[in-house]
Amino acid sequence: MSLKQHVHDLLAVSADGDFHSRAVDLGILGLIFLNVVALTLETVAPIHALYPAAFAWFERISLIIFTIEYVLRLWSCTADARYRGPVLGRLRFVFTPLAIIDLLAILPLFLPLLGLDLRFMRIVRLLRFFRLAKLFRYSRALRLLGRVVLGKREELASICIVLITLLVIAASLMYFVEHDDQPDKFSSIPQTMWWGVITLTTVGYGDYYPVTGAGKFIAACIAVLGIGMFALPAGLLGAGFVDELQKSRGDRHCPHCGERLED
Amino acid sequence: MSLKQHVHDLLAVSADGDFHSRAVDLGILGLIFLNVVALTLETVAPIHALYPAAFAWFERISLIIFTIEYVLRLWSCTADARYRGPVLGRLRFVFTPLAIIDLLAILPLFLPLLGLDLRFMRIVRLLRFFRLAKLFRYSRALRLLGRVVLGKREELASICIVLITLLVIAASLMYFVEHDDQPDKFSSIPQTMWWGVITLTTVGYGDYYPVTGAGKFIAACIAVLGIGMFALPAGLLGAGFVDELQKSRGDRHCPHCGERLED
Amino acid sequence: MSLKQHVHDLLAVSADGDFHSRAVDLGILGLIFLNVVALTLETVAPIHALYPAAFAWFERISLIIFTIEYVLRLWSCTADARYRGPVLGRLRFVFTPLAIIDLLAILPLFLPLLGLDLRFMRIVRLLRFFRLAKLFRYSRALRLLGRVVLGKREELASICIVLITLLVIAASLMYFVEHDDQPDKFSSIPQTMWWGVITLTTVGYGDYYPVTGAGKFIAACIAVLGIGMFALPAGLLGAGFVDELQKSRGDRHCPHCGERLED
Amino acid sequence: MSLKQHVHDLLAVSADGDFHSRAVDLGILGLIFLNVVALTLETVAPIHALYPAAFAWFERISLIIFTIEYVLRLWSCTADARYRGPVLGRLRFVFTPLAIIDLLAILPLFLPLLGLDLRFMRIVRLLRFFRLAKLFRYSRALRLLGRVVLGKREELASICIVLITLLVIAASLMYFVEHDDQPDKFSSIPQTMWWGVITLTTVGYGDYYPVTGAGKFIAACIAVLGIGMFALPAGLLGAGFVDELQKSRGDRHCPHCGERLED
User: Fold this and answer.
1) Facing residue for D235 by CB, picked from B202, B204, B238
2) pTM of the complete model
3) Least CB-CB distance to C238: which of A202, A206, A238?
4) pLDDT (tens digit, 0 to 9) for every residue of chain A, 263 residues total?
5) Which residues contact A239 (CB under 8 A, 6 or more apart)?
6) ipTM for this prediction
7) C with D: how many residue pairs have Cβ under 8 Å apart?
8) Among candidates D59, D39, D33, D46, which has minimal Cα distance to C175?
9) Looking at the complex, does the CB of residue B47 fall below 8 Å from at least one CB of chain C?
């Protein structure tokens, strides 16, 4: 096996038994996790004031490691059958979602003179969190969750459409009812839609609420429909889980002849 | 096929393969969607101030198109077997729910001199949103949602009755307990029912809440019952989805003996 | 059939086809409903000011009708096999839950000189709402709900015990963490338990919330456990509904010999 | 049976029919419960002011009883096969979770001079609540709940990971969007994560909420994802309950052919 293939296998998700690759995976995921912790703590003024140099150095070291990782992936990607060509294959690789995220994550190293908000660039590094999606291959439980949710994505999208429709209708009704009494709060329909989504999801901050009788009646109806908005996906995913669990047990029998069914 | 039949088929929901009818459907749905967006943005004062003439013209053009559509539907409805008679058939058609909504939506064109709040008339045009119900025929997922919810409508109605009963009893108890301490807030039983529904649905704005010990105890009980109010429909719809998903798999045959599988 | 038996059958829940009894049932339920509406509206000061005499007369007439109904039930109850004895049978009847509720509901007619809060006595008349439980026999859907909830009452009670245990532990922790920072709000453990139940049920009024870092961490854990508090009964009742719906279809077959199972 | 064995059996969870052991169990659980009530009421200033001596004496008596119980358990544990050695066996017993909790609960009797917050030590006595876990053996319903939740612990842990990931990403986005407008509220990412968890769990106190348009859009998305955060565990536990209920019916035989039914 060539050096390029070896590097490729190291960087890829480890197959069972490949301990070096597992170590590399955990190392990179660990660094991502530490980066997120650092980014989070950096915004807490007292902590940042204590160790400004430490944060800056950790930042630079992380960027250098991520850059090395990106260059190695770019170099070794041609070992993968899907990206064989030295130029075209690499271009195809560069535009895969994970590669784009990796590139965005290391940009801050190269863009200090562009005057962009560097802190914004750092939040982009958060997108590397999506590499946690690779955990899917390690966790049977995450795979089950993913199968159930993706298996019902059409129905979940339909529920979203119903939710948005309800929201627009409710917000428009509430706007016409409450606008005169509270012109500063319910000042426009988009503003009222903010009230609508906070009520429909039963969060209920209390920054906006109706004061007229008719407004309270509409709000009560929306709140009750919010119950339905929770019940529909809960029931849908419940049925999805029941399906998946039965499939994975595969022990259904024909009631007529008693033979086992594959399903 | 006569011109009338042709127009009727164009306006009706398209059958598979009828691309002209599909285009008409999408055109009308698109115009409804744009109307809703315009109505929403019109209430945002800065945007409306920028383009008052554009909003007004879009309003008039939409109304003219919707009027033409209504007249065409009224004319061609006799091609449908259900509305065959030239006068009686058309009258029956005029009173179907979708036709009434269409009529309400174009009324603003004819009622400027009646002094009604024109903005209220425009919100009526939102009712055309219910034409989105025609999407049902295009989306297998929306049809599944519809079948499950309609299939359990008796039980859902029962849950509503239980909810309203709980609400009235809780509001009356809370009124007698909190009225003396907070006469401005819990000033009457309907007012307390507003507190009740906001707590039972766990929205919890915070505009009303008990301050006495007994009031807090009642409120705690209501909040916990609110959990049940979410659990009942969630469980019910879950069982409904399990049913429907099994039914839709139901036309399968045992690969061994060839008998039909009921489940 | 004697007059007594006839009166008994009229007052009891109607069997199918007994239209007179059905009319009596609906009449009494209608009067209860009107009473609730009147009691509710009476507390709205403007409405009460408009029609004080009307409310008072409706009150007296309702009380007279309910008293007549109670006396008739007491007289005719011996026609029922369970309360045959003229004295002992009637005593046994008087202490059944529904009879006690009926008695409490008519007490205001006889206790004006006892100086008890008459309005409190009127709220007792709300307890007649439990007669709505008789609706159970008319509504297949309410019966299904009742069977599922009662069938899982042990498990639901266990969930309540878990909820109360969580509540006490969380309130004690939060009390010790937040008491010094907010001595007026988190002034005692029972007071903190109010915060706890409002957070665990995700109502979140906003009258009490932590301000220290440790307090916010505990509150975040409680809020997340609140998700579980909703998920447990939802899943439990979902499984209960699946069971009931399968039982009522009764179409399970032995996978070995193919014969139908009663279940 | 030796005295040691006898004491051991008394203190252990009673087997069916052993009434003395049952009495000891209920006595100890009752004392734990009374301790919790006393601890709770002690924090209510008016009540504590009324009976300070009573609380103090109840405290001392409880500690003495719990100490005697601990010593007896320590002495008799060698009767249990798992802790046979006089020194090593007892050491192993001392480090079991329940024994550690028992020790922490009686420490206040021995640490008054250490200057630790005695009230904090008393809250530790709350940990004896976990002895309620012994109730599991008495309650079929609690065992069912335990089996379902523990059976799905991998998937529930995955949902927690998804929740934390969503939280971090949402909090970072919201921090960068709202920080300039509300520097006191959204002052750091950990602070914003507090907003995030309160919104994702739909508690919605209202102490923090966005005021910018972009912030409201992010908040709306988080609130809607909060619905999913409720739906996933509800559906998962629902499927778990369906499984368990079918398993518990599983030892049935077909009445026609006598074969065992798997289902």
Assistant:
1) B238
2) 0.79
3) A238
4) 688 887 887 777 666 667 787 788 778 878 877 877 887 787 777 777 788 888 878 878 888 888 888 888 888 888 777 878 888 888 888 887 777 777 777 776 666 555 555 566 666 666 666 555 555 555 677 778 888 888 888 888 888 888 887 888 888 888 888 888 888 888 888 888 999 999 999 888 888 889 888 899 999 998 988 888 888 888 888 888 888 887 776 655 555 666 666 54
5) B238, B241, B242, B244, B245, D235
6) 0.74
7) 147
8) D39
9) no
